[in-house]
TrEMBL record:
MsrB domain span: 26-148
Catalytic reaction equation(s): L-methionyl-[protein] + [thioredoxin]-disulfide + H2O = L-methionyl-(R)-S-oxide-[protein] + [thioredoxin]-dithiol
PROSITE patterns, per database record: MSRB (PS51790)
PANTHER family: METHIONINE SULFOXIDE REDUCTASE (PTHR10173), METHIONINE-R-SULFOXIDE REDUCTASE B1 (PTHR10173:SF52)
Superkingdom of source: Bacteria
NCBIfam families: peptide-methionine (R)-S-oxide reductase MsrB
Entry GO CC: cytoplasm
E.C. designation(s): 1.8.4.12
Molecular-function GO term, any one: peptide-methionine (R)-S-oxide reductase activity
Keywords: Oxidoreductase
GO BP of this protein: protein repair; response to oxidative stress
Organism: Pontibacter chinhatensis
InterPro entries tied to this protein: Met_Sox_Rdtase_MsrB, Met_Sox_Rdtase_MsrB_dom, Mss4-like_sf
Protein name (record): peptide-methionine (R)-S-oxide reductase
Length: 150
């Protein structure tokens, strides 16, 4: 189980090595992704709160990266955080996501990215439910939801 101190450690020192890497040019990403997904995953934009695909969805299954298909979160870790975006308590594996400090918009946050393709997913905060106390606030456009075994 990842806790806030683990998140800080990874952001400060070194993220887990991914099992594989997906690297493309910006033009390849632009051609591969729908415009809304390109803006989120590659340009680090944020979708509107509450008006996104997975904010109020609690179907069983798993969430994969819309850029490379890597498993990021299990639906069993999703909870109703009233944040306006899908919120999760834990990533699918310790190395599923990577963490970087983000000081944009005059805020100090920790950005969450896909550890395989570096796609921007959202941010993580230390205000989640126990026992870990972390909340992964993720853009729906960065995710694809599927049933287990898909």
């Amino acid at each position: 189980m990842l806790r806030w101190k683990d998140v800080i450690y990874y952001a400060k020192y070194s993220n887990p090595e991914p099992a594989r890497r997906v690297e493309k040019t910006e033009e390849e990403w632009r051609q591969l992704l729908e415009p809304s997904r390109y803006r989120i995953l590659r340009k680090k934009e944020t979708e509107p709160p509450y008006r996104n695909a997975y904010c109020r969805s609690y179907e069983p299954g798993q969430y994969t990266c819309a850029g490379c298909g890597s498993l990021l979160f299990h639906a069993s870790e999703k909870y109703h955080a009233i944040s306006g975006w899908p919120s999760f308590t834990q990533p699918a594996t310790r190395g599923a996501v990577k963490y970087t400090f983000d000081n944009s918009h005059n805020m100090e946050r920790i950005e969450v990215r896909c550890n395989v393709c570096d796609g921007h997913l959202g941010h993580v905060f230390p205000d989640g439910p126990e026992p870990a106390g972390v909340r992964y606030c993720i853009n729906s456009e960065s995710l694809i939801h599927g049933s287990i075994g898909c």
